[in-house]
From TrEMBL:
It comes from the Eukaryota. It comes from Donacobius atricapilla. The gene is Lsmem1. The keyword Chloroplast does not apply. The lineage of its organism: Eukaryota, Metazoa, Chordata, Craniata, Vertebrata. Residues 38-58 are annotated as: Disordered. This is LSME1 protein. Pfam families: DUF4577. The chain crosses the membrane at residues 65-89. Keywords: Membrane, Transmembrane, Transmembrane helix. PANTHER family: LEUCINE-RICH SINGLE-PASS MEMBRANE PROTEIN 1.
Length: 130
């Protein structure tokens, strides 16, 4: 029986090793890039003395902008609600006026019906006499 040969293909091993090294370098580069993005830049540190004042100033500015926007939104909402309430009262007054007119017209119509009935009775009586 022949024993299988235990030959190593050295060129393939070197290729795999090269790929491993390239992958490791890529991973290391990714770690360095991600870490650099999360840290403040050197220019910012030099301008602020490394204390992070620009970040605090930015947060304060963002908070002020948020509160100003919030207050303006509240004022506009209050104005709109007031206008809607005003329109509701105006509509209510108009409906009350219209309903009172309808009631008075209904009374007028009933009176006219009574007068019409009286006139018809009178005419019927006058024809009977003739």
């Amino acid at each position: 029986m022949e024993m299988p040969s235990l030959e190593f293909n050295l060129p393939d091993t070197q290729e795999e090793g090269k790929l491993y090294v390239v992958d490791s370098l890529n991973n290391l580069n990714k770690l360095n890039v991600c870490a650099a993005e999360s840290q403040p830049s050197l220019d910012e540190e030099e301008n602020t003395g490394g204390t992070g004042e620009s970040v605090a100033g930015s947060n304060t500015r963002n908070q002020c902008l948020f509160f100003i926007t919030f207050i303006l939104t509240l004022i506009i909402s209050l104005a709109l609600v007031s206008f809607v309430i005003f329109l509701i009262f105006q509509t209510r007054n108009e409906v009350d006026q219209i309903s009172s007119r309808l009631l008075s017209e209904k009374k007028n119509i009933e009176e006219m019906k009574k007068i019409n009935n009286i006139i018809l009775k009178h005419l019927n009586q006058s024809r009977i006499k003739e």
